[in-house]
Design goal:
It is built from 14 helices and eleven strands. By secondary structure, the chain is α/β, with parallel strands linked by helices. The strands form two sheets. Strands 3, 4, 5, 6, 7, 8, 9, 10 and 11 form a nine-stranded parallel sheet that branches. Strands 1-2 form a two-stranded antiparallel sheet. It is globular, with a radius of gyration of 20 Å. Bound molecules: flavin mononucleotide. The site of flavin mononucleotide has 23 residues, from loops. Flavin mononucleotide binds near residues 196 and 215.
């Protein structure tokens, strides 16, 4: 049974201060490409009204040449606090993109220095900046000079196990003007494999003045508490644990604020959420939204009788109606099982 120690509770009782921007929650929803669009963020926000959220990462070079705001940069009037995440390796393009992001309403600008995907790293962006700290510094300085809002960095602990340079890198980011750093405790070569090495986050926290957010393997309230205790971090950021489970950030936030565990959603409630997610994606993006919804739907369909078959069917849906019919049928079956029990 997880418990909240008085020392942890009091350490986290104050707002998370990102430069002059205060956030009333120590739990953040990470940027997830192909996932954290406005529809998903609305669901997360329902259960975690105070938490910082991030858009999917936005390509600054793309913005420079196209000059038209991509849909992934769209923000809801009400959604606060919100950060727009940018990626690139050109300080001037990133500064320009940051100005557009602030016009769009971003409370902070986050620079992606952790993405491991080849397409991004071969162009000098994402985690390849760990190998080019001078450019990373120049990026932070340029963006800080361009916008009035706090600039933050999200990165990994190094390129490979033999090149773990997060301590020097994080200090450089702070000196360049970053107001918060999120550290995913894996190297680039690890991808998403193996465990996140939280011990490196502990070391980063010991040497920085700005807030340090721990990221990697926060799949539960227990993991969040353990990570916060172990690392001394100023907050935790949830990522894969929120796929098909937009309740997680709110559950952790609630626990850190009250010491109480929120009752987890039943399978029927999770399916009701999946249904709402599907309909909202269709409304927001049309048929493209339905295609994107397939993966979300399969993430929701877990942990109940018939889930495997439902997943197989949901990943083939072509229309919103097909999806709704499948979900309604599964919910009926679960309801009948509940009535019998
Ligand atoms: C599908 C997917 C998309 C991601 N997209 C982004 C992104 O756009 N920007 C970013 O900084 N990190 C991105 N990440 C990395 C996560 O934010 C996070 O750092 C990583 O998943 C580690 O946390 P976890 O172990 O809790 O999943 C992505 C990860 C996944 C699985």
């Amino acid at each position: 049974m997880v418990s909240l120690s008085p020392s942890l509770q009091s350490r986290l009782a104050t707002p998370l201060q990102i430069g002059d921007f205060a956030v009333q929650s120590r739990v953040l929803q990470s940027p997830l490409s192909g996932v954290t669009d406005m529809v998903f963020r609305r669901l997360v926000r329902r259960y975690a009204p105070d938490s910082m959220m991030y858009t999917e990462m936005v390509n600054a070079t793309g913005l420079h040449y196209v000059r038209e705001l991509p849909k992934i940069m769209e923000l809801d009037e009400q959604e606060r606090p919100i950060s727009i995440q940018l990626f690139d390796c050109r300080p001037d393009f990133l500064a320009e993109a940051a100005v557009m992001a602030v016009e769009e309403g971003a409370d902070t600008i986050d620079i992606n220095m952790g993405c491991p995907v080849n397409k991004i790293t071969k162009n000098g962006g994402g985690s390849s900046l760990l190998r080019d700290p001078e450019t990373a510094e120049a990026i932070v300085r340029a963006v800080v000079a361009a916008v009035p809002v706090p600039v933050t960095v999200k990165t990994r602990i190094g390129w490979t196990d033999k090149e773990i340079n997060i301590l020097d890198f994080a200090q450089r980011m702070e000196a360049a003007g970053a107001k918060m750093i999120t550290v995913h405790g894996r190297t680039r070569s690890q991808g998403y494999n193996g465990n996140a090495k939280w011990e490196w986050i502990t070391k980063v926290k010991e040497i920085l003045q700005i807030p340090v957010i721990a990221n990697g393997d926060i799949f539960s309230v227990e993991a969040a508490v353990q990570c916060l205790e172990q690392t001394g971090a100023d907050g935790v950021m949830c990522s894969r644990g929120t796929l098909g489970y937009p309740f997680l950030v709110g559950e952790i936030d609630y626990f850190l604020k009250t010491g109480q565990l929120r009752t987890p959603p039943t399978a029927i409630e999770r399916l009701a959420c999946a249904r709402e997610h599907l309909l909202a994606l269709f409304e927001y993006k049309g048929d493209r939204g339905v295609r994107q919804a397939r993966k979300h739907m399969t993430w929701y369909a877990k942990g109940f009788t018939g889930a495997a078959q439902l997943r197989g069917e949901l990943c083939l849906i072509d229309t919103v109606t097909q999806g709704v019919v499948l979900i309604d049928r599964a919910m009926d079956v679960l309801q009948q099982e509940r009535d019998i029990a």
